[in-house]
Design goal:
Blueprint: H1 8-73, H2 76-84, H3 87-100, E1 105-110, E2 115-118, H4 133-139, E3 144-150, H5 152-158, H6 160-166, E4 168-169, E5 183-184, E6 187-197, E7 203-212, H7 218-228, E8 232-233, E9 236-237, E10 239-245, E11 248-252, H8 269-277, E12 282-288, E13 291-301, E14 307-316, H9 318-368, H10 383-394, H11 398-438, H12 451-467, H13 474-496, E15 507-509, H14 511-522, E16 530-536, E17 544-546, H15 548-565, E18 569-579, E19 584-590, H16 598-601, H17 621-631, E20 635-640, E21 646-653
Parallel strand pairs: 16-18
Antiparallel strand pairs: 1-2, 1-7, 3-6, 4-5, 6-7, 8-9, 10-11, 10-14, 12-13, 13-14, 15-17, 18-19, 19-21, 20-21
Length: 659
């Protein structure tokens, strides 16, 4: 009998090795695609949110110009100067307004739309601006602001410097649409206009003002600072923002190969077709000047709805690609170590399987030579042991052995069915687990319209308060309604401006009074009915200079978190103290709840991290509180052990230093 080319042990090891390698390669291929698609998808979601923040900055700048022009036009002195034709005094005043508010243009028109005064160029006056759509609407007594393309001849009327600022020479750009011309002479201006009305409502004139966007980097740099916070990767800024005039970069912090702002470079042709020609947003990877970015583009429209440019934000693609590659390299290393580990285990396991089989081979050889008395000695009680028993009985009772073999076959068939059913159940469980694991967090956008009903409540609350005498019992209630509604509006604004928190409104604040107001608000809450509150207030605690509304938001957030951690039953302790050496007031809020795990405590102040059930928390409360305390130049610390409650200690300077 010839010896086999490969032993059974070798075949088993090679078979399992082949399965492991094929499975590992398939897992790496599928995993690499999943990792890359997940990272890119997350990056696209982020850049879409970043574009919303960029629009907030853009619109805020436009509204600032609109409010400035509207308030200036509404001044009584403007009406007096116009009625008395004292243009010299008016010129001095408007010139000061333009310089102090960094406007590029501030122009006064008469009631027919003719220029009475250009503050940047007093010698150019008398021309008719009534055909300008923004001016035309202001002549109809509408205050309006919008981006607008201003021709070179109009810019020259303001100043030669402004026309020179708008002049941009085209720079050849890879993947861009070629242009027949080599420069752009017109400019994009954020322009506002407001009517100047007499006491009787008649139109005296129109005031217009604007800021030229070309080579003005205030908006794009503010977007980068707010959204990307100066993040860098291998010495390069990861986030960029750009304002396009048509497909030309006129204001950008994208850098060319020499490290200069890439003003004059052109938009990628595919993006131009989608955004400028079809008017649709673009959220995908795109080639920006000299590298690939995860980008978001949306059209900029003038007052008539015509597309005149594009607002863009983008994040460098290379960090995401490198992260994916590092993950794949890590997974590959782990897979390699797993293969070595499994082969080592397999080597020893196959020995236990093949050793009884080798004994049976020797027994069959003896029986083949006629020694029917030879028995197989196998001590194991598994299938191989049962086979050995059957083999031994075969030599004594061939007929019985045949029946026993049939029974064994039926036993094997039943066990195969049972194992098949088990494998099917396991497979179904794995499929369900993969489906559940593939469900991502749904990033809920903040509804800007929340501010509108709150604003209406405030307006009508003030109107009712003005009509309610102070001796009426509803007077104080109305004041409370207005105060709490204002605080709600501030909270919504804080959430919308989470990436750029407001500066605190500094005023003397009594911390004890602020804590008592927070507790008074919780008295009627069902969650606090079985919670005992202990106040350990320091005597003669000095007042601090702070924003009481923002601090109340922080205290209320921590107090409600404490109540939820105690499930509405326990002891809530509020303790205050003053450290003269540090000139610092501290507030400690302690609970007897379930506490915080060590791994959760490290991520407690991360945005969108929450330990609450799905739908019961946004994960923003403590992150916003942390930002507010930082703005107050203070600190917030947490001490907790799982099952033994938590203590939040907020330390605030008595007097904030000037920013």
């Amino acid at each position: 009998m010839r010896s086999p080319r490969f032993s059974l042990r070798t075949k088993l090891i090679l078979s399992f090795l082949a399965i492991i390698i094929v499975g590992g390669l398939l897992s790496l291929i599928v995993g690499s695609q999943l990792i890359r698609s997940t990272l890119i998808s997350q990056a696209q979601d982020k850049v879409r949110h970043d574009l919303s923040s960029a629009w907030m900055v853009f619109d805020e700048k436009l509204n600032d110009i609109k409010n400035l022009v509207r308030l200036t036009a509404a001044r009584e002195s403007m009406r007096d100067f116009l009625r008395t034709h004292r243009l010299e005094i008016l010129s001095q005043y408007l010139s000061r307004v333009r310089v102090e508010n960094r406007l590029d243009a501030l122009t006064l028109l008469d009631h027919q739309g003719r220029v009475l005064l250009r503050t940047s160029s007093p010698d150019h006056a008398g021309d008719d601006q009534s055909r300008d759509e923004i001016v035309r609407r202001a002549l109809l007594r509408e205050t309006i602001a919008a981006p607008q393309i201003v021709p070179r001849e109009e810019l020259l009327k303001e100043s030669e410097a402004l026309a020179a600022q708008a002049l941009v020479t085209f720079i050849p750009t890879p993947r861009a649409t070629p242009h027949a011309e080599d420069r752009e002479t017109s400019g994009m201006m954020l322009k506002a206009a407001a009517p100047i009305l007499n006491e009787d409502g008649s139109l005296l004139g129109v005031l217009t003002g604007g800021v030229l966007v070309n080579r003005n980097y205030e908006i794009v740099d503010q977007v980068r600072e707010i959204v990307f916070k100066g993040g860098q990767y291998k010495g390069r800024e990861t986030g960029t923002a750009t304002i396009f005039q048509n497909d030309l970069r006129i204001s950008t912090n994208v850098e060319d190969e020499q490290g200069r702002r890439a003003v004059g470079t052109l938009l990628m042709a595919e993006v131009k077709k989608t955004v400028l020609d079809e008017g649709r947003p673009w959220v995908a990877r795109a080639f920006v000047v000299n590298d690939w970015y995860i980008t978001a583009y949306e059209p900029i429209k003038d007052v008539t709805g015509r597309i005149i440019g594009i607002l863009y934000v983008g994040s460098l693609e290379r960090p995401y690609i490198d992260t994916a590659n590092r993950l794949l390299l890590t997974f590959s290393g782990i897979a390699g170590l797993s293969v070595v580990f499994l082969l080592t285990i397999l080597y020893f396991l196959t020995a236990r399987i093949t050793r009884p089989l080798q004994r049976m081979v020797v027994a069959t050889q003896e029986i083949a030579r006629g020694d029917l008395s030879h028995k197989v000695h196998v001590a194991s009680r598994d299938e191989i042991g049962a086979l050995a028993c059957s083999f031994n009985q075969m030599t004594d009772r061939l007929c019985e052995a045949n029946e026993k073999l049939l029974d064994w076959g039926r036993t094997l068939e039943r066990k195969v069915k049972e194992r098949t059913q088990e494998l099917s159940d396991i497979q179904s469980h794995l499929i369900q687990s993969e489906k559940l694991a593939s469900i991502g967090k749904l990033a809920a956008g903040i509804a800007h319209e929340i501010n509108n009903p709150l604003g209406a409540v405030l307006i009508y609350g003030h109107l009712i308060l003005e009509d309610t005498p102070q001796d009426q019992p509803h007077h104080e209630n109305l004041k409370k309604i207005i105060r709490e509604t204002t605080r709600c509006k501030d909270i919504v604004t804080g959430l919308l401006d989470f990436a750029r928190p407001k500066e605190p409104q500094r005023q003397p604040t009594d911390v004890h009074d602020l804590l008592d107001r927070c507790l008074a608000f919780t008295e009627q809450q069902a969650l606090f009915q079985n919670i005992r509150v202990e106040k350990v207030y320091a005597p003669n605690l000095p007042r601090i200079v702070a924003d009481s509304g923002q601090l109340q938001q922080v205290f209320m957030n921590i107090i409600f978190n404490a109540a939820e951690s105690m499930n509405g039953t326990g002891i809530l302790t509020l303790q205050t103290s003053f450290d003269p050496s540090r000139d610092e007031v501290s507030v400690a809020i302690a609970d007897t709840g379930h506490g915080i795990k060590d791994e959760d405590r490290k991520r407690l102040f991360e945005p969108f991290f929450t330990t609450k059930d799905v739908g019961k928390g946004t994960g923003l409360g403590l992150a916003i509180s942390y930002g507010i305390i930082q703005k107050h130049q203070g600190t917030i610390k947490v001490q907790s052990e799982a099952g033994r409650g938590a203590t939040f200690t907020i330390s605030l300077p008595r007097q904030m230093s000037q920013p």
